[in-house]
Amino acid sequence: MSELYTSVRNKIENGQRISEEEALALFESPDLLAIGELAAEANRRKNDDKVYFNVNRHINYTNLCVNRCTFCAFSREKGGAGEYTLALEQVVEKAREAASAGATEIHIVGGLHPDLPFEFYLDMLRTIHLVDAGLHIKAFTAVEIDYFSRLSGLSVEEVLDQ
Hints:
Blueprint: H1 2-13, H2 20-28, H3 32-47, E1 56-59, H4 88-100, E2 105-108, H5 118-131, E3 136-139, H6 142-152, H7 156-161
Parallel strand pairs: 1-2, 2-3
Helix pairs in contact: 1-3, 4-5
């Protein structure tokens, strides 16, 4: 594999694109550290030392979930030990704390709550936006959006338009 890495490094240094075959070989390579070094070098050459990042705050509004995903260690059943659902005021307070601490993004994820109405989620987003209009809101997984569609009777597109 060292021949591959040498070839790719030379292309990076000369500002050339790698071939599809080289990309596939890198993808299949077990040497993640070497691939990471190549990626970092390509990034430095393209972007210099400029970086972009968010100051992010995760808000998990509930861990109650009607799904029973076998891989999930987060969800709880209603009435189960450790289950919680934050009131809208608690979510807003967490967003306020984040904004005053310099957060640029709020990331909202929770379970598929068995009892919360669709309007709760809309109110949550609207109210967080009122806390600080400059906060970027990254909210909900695809599974949650699908659940909101079924919960509200709206299409996925209509849910996203809300």
